[in-house]
Amino acid sequence: MSEAAAHVRVVEETPAYWRVVFDYPPFNIVDATIFEGLQDLLARMDASPSLRVVVFESTNPEFYLAHFDLTGKIGNIMTAVGASGLPVLMDTLVRLTKSPVVSIAKIRGCVRGVSSEFVLACDMRFASRENTRLGQPEVGVGLHPGGGGAERLPHLVGRGRALEIVLGANDFDGDTAEKYGYVNRALPDAELDGFIEALARRIASFDQRAIAAAKNLINQVSLPAADRLLDALSSFQSALTWSEAQQRIQALLERGLQRDANFEKRWPALLGTLLET
Amino acid sequence: MSEAAAHVRVVEETPAYWRVVFDYPPFNIVDATIFEGLQDLLARMDASPSLRVVVFESTNPEFYLAHFDLTGKIGNIMTAVGASGLPVLMDTLVRLTKSPVVSIAKIRGCVRGVSSEFVLACDMRFASRENTRLGQPEVGVGLHPGGGGAERLPHLVGRGRALEIVLGANDFDGDTAEKYGYVNRALPDAELDGFIEALARRIASFDQRAIAAAKNLINQVSLPAADRLLDALSSFQSALTWSEAQQRIQALLERGLQRDANFEKRWPALLGTLLET
Amino acid sequence: MSEAAAHVRVVEETPAYWRVVFDYPPFNIVDATIFEGLQDLLARMDASPSLRVVVFESTNPEFYLAHFDLTGKIGNIMTAVGASGLPVLMDTLVRLTKSPVVSIAKIRGCVRGVSSEFVLACDMRFASRENTRLGQPEVGVGLHPGGGGAERLPHLVGRGRALEIVLGANDFDGDTAEKYGYVNRALPDAELDGFIEALARRIASFDQRAIAAAKNLINQVSLPAADRLLDALSSFQSALTWSEAQQRIQALLERGLQRDANFEKRWPALLGTLLET
Fold it and tell me: What is the pLDDT of residues A167-218, one digit of tens each?
């Protein structure tokens, strides 16, 4: 098993229903390894005609997927292209949205920035009511969403709430995320596994052609245009070079980002005073 | 009175406000007769310049409109064209959305598949909080929505919830339908009639030109494109010939669909195990 | 200080965060003076590179902004053009949506018609749970929304709720406005000031380039087309000349509109019986 496959682990519950488990200690930071795992998964999904549903979950209840790696371990995911001809970061999310396989995010813990963009690219999102910290904090880091968040959120939650999520750059709990339509539903933590298991097995019992045709019809009227997604990614790449962003990233790393579990859990709340003192 | 007019009954409360009552025992199944009644209604609406509002309701509190007839009694509603040049099924729903007359669905009981697509084509939808079973179960029957559901739902509820409704293929109760934006509101059953009566009479007191201009402006930015609707319908017609769909339809009819009131009330919940044993 | 500047008062809390206070007794009616104040504000915002956030609020807890002046004091706001080349009424709202400065509406009291369209043009809207009366009552006056309401509402709340808001022509309280997505959130009145102060100061601490780039990306997928906005405004100008509208405006002015505080607070509720003796 490759290193990536160990961290993005596939559990074949049945030929029609797989669970994909993020297990990349300490915090499930999204770097080149996670994208390699997702690329391998997509190839495997394409080669599995009996597959209907994939549920994405985490072994770590505190961190679903933390956020984009800010220490440089991102390989060539923004320059190399994937099977769709788009840069790997975008290719991964776009192919997930267009796959005939249904994707369900089962969310517990922290899901920020590119991780929020990952769950927004899943077909459905269900969150733990008690244990969800979901957001797009990029603007508070001197950056902006680059992986589709700015394009997918307005369709889901409307312009006003999308601007609050992106410009406020803070965490949203399960209840607020549900109220805004950021997730399909927030469920009591104790009911989340059972709800998703039942939904996944139900969909897995349906016919492949019916699922694919229905998802395709909905995609035709609900997916953002590729040129909008590319604009956002290329603007994000520029933003990474801005001195303001570099200064804020430095301040976050010094305070404990990607090192200190306690800081990693709550850093978006602190962004409003990041450069003070 | 024609047979269709007896089952899609018009009650002229005032020249400006009509109630249209579905009364087609035993379950208000949507077949060629219902579409004939709706086509007659649309012609009558076009010829009634003083009309402002039509409220659609059912005499049967268990069934608003059940679902598309699966025993073949659909006449030529997918091949013959209506006044708009679209096939009658689509023509009926599209003309309702574009009519200067305001349409309000007052929902009690079961509303599935093409019936959900009917209420989605109404201008507003209000549902009984205690007594609503609304959904698009087509995918669980080996089919997919063909009457605009896949095109109208993402605009109303966002891509994630639209995919859950369509791919999960299950019933939604009043509260969840309201939370998702599938209906305008769910109201306590005892308040539903009074609320809609007041709203309808209020709108009926307004001027025809103001209503028509306002609805037209909103339509310009909110109706799906005709080519998308036609794509869905033509794909649905193909799906009806798929062997998977035929097998599931057969299984449903054998278990009691369109015959057994108890089965008719709860069949979407059973779709996940339809082909087992 | 000009008269307009006295009624649309700018309080520079910091170079990055301004409050703009509507103070135009008795009811903050929206006339040419208010638009002059907003135009002056926009010019000043454009000339203030350190500015990040503007919060719009009212000194009068009963009236945020009442509604469009119906006594003729609207100057040339529909004929003269502003900096964008659009008529001043539209120019004001469109430039606010496209400004790199973030706009937040803090809503207490009555906000109807063009005032609703003003808060819809703000980036975010937060409302007092106990004290909000928000709506688009134009259709009940024989008119229709002309300042972007018909174009912005469907994106925020979906077609069904947009049609209910516009064709029902009634007030929405804070809870319903939140449930519909008409406002971002309704907050307990006692918490509203603190919530917005914290959010505004937080955003004010972020970098200008990051804010502007993020808002621009979201705008690309969420703003209505200019030709749609112009169509609505030009149709509204025609509607003002309709005899039905003139009759209803006359009836409202006779009953106390723009004169009697008690009538001014509750007039939309009375529109359903306006022309009855």
Answer: 999 999 999 999 999 999 999 999 999 999 999 999 999 999 999 999 999 9
How buried is residue B9: exposed, middle or buried, by Cβ count under 10 Å (0-12/13-18/19+)?
Answer: middle
Q: What are phi and psi of B160, to 5 degrees?
A: -65, -45
Residues in C touching B176 (Cβ below 8 Å): none
User: Per the omega criterion (within 30 degrees of 0), is the bond before C26 cis?
Assistant: yes
pLDDT at B2: 86
Q: How far is B43 from chain A (nearest CA, A)?
A: 31
Cα C248-C250-C252 angle, rounded to 5 deg = 70
Cβ contacts of A134 on chain B, cutoff 8 Å? none
Q: Do B163 and A206 touch (CB under 8 A)?
A: no
In this prediction, residues B116-128 reach a mean pLDDT of 98
ipTM value of the model? 0.98
The answer, for C140 touching chain B at a CB cutoff of 8 Å, is yes
What pLDDT score was predicted for residue B277?
63
Q: What is the residue-wise DSSP string for A102-158? A: EEEEEEEEEEETHHHHHHHHSSEEEEEEEEEEEE-GGGGGT----SSHHHHHHHHHH
Give the C-alpha separation, B188 to C183, whole Å: 24
- Give the number of beta-carbon pairs within 8 Å between A and C: 119
Helix, strand, coil % in chain A, rounded to nearest 5: 50, 20, 30
Residues of B in contact with C269 (CB under 8 A): none
- Residue C277: the pLDDT is 63
Average confidence score pLDDT of chain C? 97
Q: Looking at residues B104-132, what average pLDDT do you find?
A: 98
Q: Which helix (H) or strand (E) holds B227?
A: helix B226-239
Enter the tokens of residue A17: 């229903």
